[in-house]
Amino acid sequence: MTDRPSVLVPVRVLEGESIPEGVPELLANAHVVLLGYHVVPDQTATGQARMQFEERANGRLEKFASLFEDAGATVDQRLVFTHDGQKTLDRIIDEHDCLAVLVPNATAPPTDVLVAVRGTIGVGRLAEVVAGLFGAMDVDVTLYHVAEADESMDDIETFLDGVVDRLTTFGVPESAIETRVETAEKPLAAIAATAEDFDAVVMGESDPSLTTFVFGMPADQLAERFLGPVLVVQREESESS
Amino acid sequence: MADQPVGPGVSGENVAGETPVEEPETVTDEAIVHDEETELERTIGLVGGLAIGIGTMIGAGIFVFPGLAASTAGPAASLSFAIGGVIALLVALPTAELATAMPRSGGGYYFISRGLGTAAGAIVGLGLWLGLVFASAFYLIGLGHYATAVLAEVGIELGADPVVVIALLFGVVLTALSIGGTENTAKLQNYVVGILLVVLTVFLTYGVLDAFGVFGRQSAPEVFFSQGTFPVLTTAALVFTSYLGFAQVATVAGEIKEPSRNLPRAMIGSVVIVTVFYVVTIFVATSAFGADRLGTFGETAMVEVAREFLGLPGAVAILLAGLLATFSSANASILSASRAVYALSRDALLPRKASEVNLRYGTPHVALLAAGGPILVLVATGEVELLAEVASFLHLVMYGLICVALLVLRRRNPDWYTPSYRIPGYPVVPAIGALASFGLVAFMQPASIVVGLGVMILSYLWYRYYASDVTLQGAI
Question: Which range of residues forms the domain containing residue A228?
Answer without folding.
Answer: 112-233
